[in-house]
């Protein structure tokens, strides 16, 4: 048994759990971490990067089970708040599912590289900086206050997350803030919106590429990475909700810009960090 592979999978799981819900691009960080550690073959690593995101989203389901169950049952019982949230999440999830099913593999093949990640980080950082410097008047303090129309707009913005380095969380949180949604409500809606998208993408990619895992150890490594992702994401969710209640996202804007420039410099010059 290759214990180094399990250690690398744990590192990848921690990176996923920490970055999935921050506006800094989990996929971009996973691609870079994979290349830095020379983790697995590229074919296995690419599938692993998508599949372990299911562990992070499972942490959201665990943490917000009550509200999510209310949204699911509200679609049947007609309970006003639950039904509204349920419909909002369904409509907001449709755009990225349609685009992802149509172009997901093409995007994965063309843009899963250092330069795409760097550009996505820099552009996203500049957008976050601009939004924080030009705040909108808040009219939706809680996630239940987000209108159906706004939910659809946020869903359309989420399509940008197919580009590595963009960040699904960053796109949806900042997009919601541009519409007048509070940081806390935007963050929670982004958590919920990730459930159908990430679970769907993870299971679909695993179904289409399960043949790359040829041994029992391969599946054990994937399961271990997913478990580590779940635990680290659960911790991050609680920390992030407390953070956004008091602070803005400027630190993430600067982090994205600086890290993107560094990655771009090394990618274009051929220098190595290791």
From TrEMBL:
<keyword id="KW-0378">Hydrolase</keyword>
<feature type="transmembrane region" description="Helical">
    <location>
        <begin position="85"/>
        <end position="103"/>
    </location>
</feature>
<feature type="transmembrane region" description="Helical">
    <location>
        <begin position="47"/>
        <end position="65"/>
    </location>
</feature>
<keyword id="KW-0961">Cell wall biogenesis/degradation</keyword>
<keyword id="KW-0133">Cell shape</keyword>
<dbReference type="InterPro" id="IPR003824">
    <property type="entry name" value="UppP"/>
</dbReference>
<dbReference type="GO" id="GO:0008360">
    <property type="term" value="P:regulation of cell shape"/>
</dbReference>
<dbReference type="GO" id="GO:0009252">
    <property type="term" value="P:peptidoglycan biosynthetic process"/>
</dbReference>
<feature type="transmembrane region" description="Helical">
    <location>
        <begin position="253"/>
        <end position="271"/>
    </location>
</feature>
<dbReference type="GO" id="GO:0005886">
    <property type="term" value="C:plasma membrane"/>
</dbReference>
<comment type="function">
    <text>Catalyzes the dephosphorylation of undecaprenyl diphosphate (UPP). Confers resistance to bacitracin.</text>
</comment>
<feature type="transmembrane region" description="Helical">
    <location>
        <begin position="151"/>
        <end position="177"/>
    </location>
</feature>
<keyword id="KW-1133">Transmembrane helix</keyword>
<keyword id="KW-0812">Transmembrane</keyword>
<keyword id="KW-0997">Cell inner membrane</keyword>
<feature type="transmembrane region" description="Helical">
    <location>
        <begin position="219"/>
        <end position="241"/>
    </location>
</feature>
<keyword id="KW-0472">Membrane</keyword>
<feature type="transmembrane region" description="Helical">
    <location>
        <begin position="189"/>
        <end position="207"/>
    </location>
</feature>
<dbReference type="GO" id="GO:0071555">
    <property type="term" value="P:cell wall organization"/>
</dbReference>
<comment type="similarity">
    <text>Belongs to the UppP family.</text>
</comment>
<keyword id="KW-0573">Peptidoglycan synthesis</keyword>
<dbReference type="GO" id="GO:0046677">
    <property type="term" value="P:response to antibiotic"/>
</dbReference>
<keyword id="KW-1003">Cell membrane</keyword>
<keyword id="KW-0046">Antibiotic resistance</keyword>
<protein>
    <recommendedName>
        <fullName>Undecaprenyl-diphosphatase</fullName>
        <ecNumber>3.6.1.27</ecNumber>
    </recommendedName>
</protein>
<dbReference type="Pfam" id="PF02673">
    <property type="entry name" value="BacA"/>
</dbReference>
<feature type="transmembrane region" description="Helical">
    <location>
        <begin position="110"/>
        <end position="131"/>
    </location>
</feature>
<dbReference type="GO" id="GO:0050380">
    <property type="term" value="F:undecaprenyl-diphosphatase activity"/>
</dbReference>
